[in-house]
Amino acid sequence: MTFSPELEARFEKFLAKYPAERKRSAMIPMLIYGQDEVGSITEELIAEVAKRVGVTPLQVNEVVGFYSMLHKKGMGKYHVQVCTNISCLLVGGAELYDQARHKLGIGHKEVRPDGRVSLEEVECMGACSWAPAIQVNYDFYHDVTPDQLDKLLDGLLAGKTPEQITEVRKVNC
Amino acid sequence: MLYNQPNPLEVRILTRRFGLPDSHTIDTYLANDGYKAFEKALGMSRDEIINEVKASGLRGRGGAGFPTGLKWGFVPKQSPKPKYIMVNADESEPGTCKDRLLIEYDPHQLIEGILIAGLAVGAETGYIYIRGEYRYLIDVMDRAIDEAYARGYLGENILGRGIKVNIATHSGAGAYECGEESALLESFEGKRGNPRIRPPFPAVAGAYQCPTVLNNVETFCAVPPIILQGGAYFAGLGTPRNGGTRLFCLSGHINKPGVYELPMGFNLMRMINEVGGGMRGGKKLKAVIPGGSSCPLLKAEECDLAMDFDTLAKANSMLGSGGVVVMDEDTCMVKAALRIMRFYAHESCGWCIPCREGTTWLRKLLQRFHDGMGQRSDIVLIGDLSKNMLGRTFCPLGDAAALPTISIVEKFRDEFEAHLDGKPCPFEHASRLVTA
After folding, report:
1. Helix axes B135-150, B107-121, angle to 10 degrees
2. Which of A70, A90, A173 sits opposite B252 (nearest CB)?
3. B306-307 vs B266-267, strand pairing mode
């Protein structure tokens, strides 16, 4: 299996982080960065990671099933994650999730037919003091209002990138 | 840019560089006492460093509150195996969002904490296990680590003093359970995040079964100020046996939610009213989760207390991870219990049957209850099931699910009764009950 030169370089760096006989430690980082490039955790990716860290594909497979960010089914190019855990719930997180469901016409871990946008109701993402919060891929949006969510989703549905939707800004650097 | 305005009541020790221009860079760090504690520690013996940490009264900021100096002291002095420093940056306790800031605004403080811990126990390798959702922080941390290598604060011969410490980040992939120390170690080794049977504890057999110091981000970040200003100074900021300050994450129905660094023992009502700006919309306080969703809830009338580990334990709750979740009079406590249980049922790793089965049963019972189809006997059943999970699992997740549930059933039984006999949730508009 071939990856981009950037990902190859990253994998090499991962494998060098751990003692030579402990390459298995690189498995989960390789899977999550691999998924970012491949689009999902494919059988091919599992076999490749297994080979590189020196375990069987079955040993990788049992790990994949444990972690909620590893998806065997590909998510959309823009994966919208709405937190409804307690701090967000108290200030409108569940309502935001409902709004996203209706707007996008899809449910939990579902992808729009064109593959651009997907939705997930997620557990606490560590933005409790700036709730309700959402993430699009790895970017955080704090203190999200229904109006902002509308603008963000409208923009994504209209084919814009999150950066082009200037009314709603990610907060992380 | 800071996510919330600081408050004048804060005592900014760990957060003192927050808000400075480019506070994440080594130049800003060095210009503001950065790496001075490490240089001081270079002139101290291992025991001197550990004793200073012991004197500070620092207790683990991840949630358990175990004395840090004592934990470091458990690492064997002589070991044929290499020793490791492991940073738990898998922050995922609902209500908690402080480690994110410590890494985002001041990653070098964490590196310096790791370096000093390395000196104290003789470890030459450190890993920072960062939850997968915090991808941007992995980048922040990696850049800081690169800077530290470039300036000679990390590597094979640090500052030409013949000291060797190497640090690397490690990405998780979404699992609350991996915030538990032994599950974190399993995950770090490329396995499912199931907890290990203890003893042996990580200090003796941690990463790769080698002696390992495993602490929360905030715990490591407290170490440089302790070494620089002295353990006694840090201890004096807090209450007896509860040294220093702590980053409290205020969330929920308050006017000024945010992360604030306050002295240990700060009064909870003052925290809500004077730091958090009081209740939103002038509503009445109903309940507070004092330290992340694993903690038993406090009723409004129980909230006039000092926020330290011992006072909270006396109040039959926990200081936990510093996540203070404030709920007003319009909050449905059955719904809160349900949401909390949905979380634990989702996050239970399935290793221990009481937790795996218990959280799922409780989720179903609470869902049925909130839907208006609960039976009176269910109230007792929810309490009984929860109590049967207590102490019957390898890791604290089972307790974490049971404790808040027991407290809600005991303290808000009237709200469960108000959901009986097919009555709709008294706190919700009828239209919200229809979920597809």
Report:
1. 60
2. A90
3. antiparallel
Best to test chain B binding among A124, A141, A171, A173 (most B CBs inside 10 Å): A124
Do B65 and B292 form a contact (C-beta atoms < 8 A)?
A: no
| Residue B110 near residue B220 (C-beta atoms within 8 A) | yes
Q: Residue B286: phi, psi to the nearest 5? A: -110, -50
pLDDT at B435 over 70: no
| Ranges in chain B annotated CATH 3.10.20.600 | 245-328
pLDDT at B433 > cutoff 50: no
H or E segment at A117? strand A117-122
User: Mind listing the pLDDT tens digit for each residue in A122-134?
Assistant: 999 999 999 999 9
Smallest Cα–Cα separation from B399: which of B271, B307, B296? B296
Query: Parallel, antiparallel, or unpaired: how do β-strands B323-328 and B306-307 relate?
Result: unpaired
- Per-residue model confidence (pLDDT) at position B431: 45
Domain covering B245-328 in this structure, CATH number: 3.10.20.600
A132: preceding bond cis by omega (within 30 degrees):
yes
- Give the whole-angstrom CA distance, residue A123 versus residue A153: 20
Q: Do A126 and B293 touch (CB under 8 A)?
A: no
Mean pLDDT of B269-287: 98
Q: Which helix (H) or strand (E) holds A57?
A: helix A57-64
The answer to whether B325 and B288 are in contact (CB under 8 A) is yes
Top CATH class, A78-164: alpha beta
Residue located via tokens 């590893």: A70
Q: What is the pLDDT of residue B426?
A: 86
Domain spanning B26-237: which CATH class is it, in words? alpha beta
pTM exceeding the 0.95 threshold for the entire prediction = yes
**Identity at B349, one-letter amino acid code:** C
> Is residue A110 packed enough to be buried (19+ CB in 10 Å), middle (13-18) or exposed (0-12)?
middle
Is the distance from CB of B138 to CB of B169 less than 8 angstroms?
yes
Residue A112: pLDDT band with limits 50, 70, 90: very high
Interface contacts (A, B; CB < 8 Å): 154
Q: Does the pLDDT at position B178 exceed 50?
A: yes
Q: Give the architecture-level CATH label for domain B333-433.
A: Up-down Bundle (1.20)
For chain A, residues classed under CATH 1.10.10 are 5-64
Residue with tokens 């800071």: B2
Q: Are B424 and B341 in contact (CB under 8 A)?
A: no
The dotted CATH code for A5-64 is 1.10.10
Domain with CATH 3.40.50.11540 in chain B: 26-237
Is A55 touching B (CB cutoff 8 A)? yes
